[in-house]
Amino acid sequence: MSSATSRPVSGRQARxxxxxxxxxxxxxxxxxxxxxxxxxxxxxxxMQIAEHAGLAKSVVYRQFAGRDELDRRxxxxxxxxxxxxxxxxxxxxxxxxxxxxxxxxxxxxxxxEDHPRLHEFLRTGPSEExxxxxxxxxxxxxxxxxTRALVTGLAGVVGVADxxxxxxxTFAIVSMTEATVTRWAGDPAPLLSREQLIEEVASYxxxxxxxxxxxxxxxxxxxxxxxxxxxxxAAPN
Length: 237
Hints:
Residues 21-82 form the HTH tetR-type domain. By secondary structure, this protein is mostly helical. The protein has 2 domains: 7-64, Arc Repressor Mutant, subunit A, CATH 1.10.10; 74-234, Tetracycline Repressor, domain 2 (Orthogonal Bundle), CATH 1.10.357. Helix content is 69%, strand content 0%. The chain is built from 10 helices and no strands. The chain has helices spanning 11-37, 46-53, 57-63, 67-89, 97-114, 116-121, 135-157, 165-185, 194-215, 226-234. It is elongated.
């Protein structure tokens, strides 16, 4: 199913494009707001989305070719919000390795706790047309790729060649974190508190990072500022 925005546009259509973009955004935001309030497993009707957006149902169908396209666009917006929150937390310029891990894992816990319905919706289908991968797995791959690029860049600074272990390491940490936090969030009586969970998962992630670093001849201090570690290894002997 092709997107309305992917078709060639005439001059008249181009003049209306900002207006149509605004309406699409309004529809998607309204759908997400309603989705947050809906019971688990309950689909929000297009009529309800249109009413919440202050638009006629026919306008929704003019902006999106059908329910599948609208749902893909909703999942893409949810994914973008999730990624933005995680990347804000994953700031290598601020903190030690341990504090960065705790902060980033804390952001994952907060997002899943605060948006359980959106998190669930990511598993209901893809965010891109033609994809067979659901939006949650695509999101995990996106965050892992972003983290991999960051770690690979740091490895290059300290003179360590990437032998492929960075790819495995980052995907393992990201997928482990999402799966563990999801299980915890869905448990009506979890054994660990929120703070205990974050510290526990951060310790797992640290052991993975430390193991990979040692195999490359690097000894890291989890409590040292990451910027200091990079400067130390990058300094000429």
